[in-house]
Specification:
Layout: E1 4-7, E2 11-18, E3 21-32, E4 35-43, H1 52-66, E5 70-73, H2 76-84, H3 86-89
Parallel strand pairs: 4-5
Antiparallel strand pairs: 1-2, 2-3, 3-4
Amino acid sequence: MDIQHRHSENNGSFFVENDNKTIAEIVYSLTNPAIMVIEHTEVDPSLKGKNIGLKLVNKAVFFAKENGMKIKAVCPFARSVFEKFPDKYNDILYLR
């Protein structure tokens, strides 16, 4: 499954499309160049059980690390992923 990325100066998303329709997406904003705020994650029910939400979170984490950012998770799903795997994500979280 191909995860695409849209990015502008202050926000962006990682998403999956099927027939030109977004079927999974994680949306973020940049409060400053060093902090990515994950605001929302949505996955179509047809993708249930395929770990697409986790893959979207991992794409966001990779992007943040690659660009020297920390992540603040406002999105309940992303926050639950970070809490479930603290050893994997603690170094990227913005905790203030």
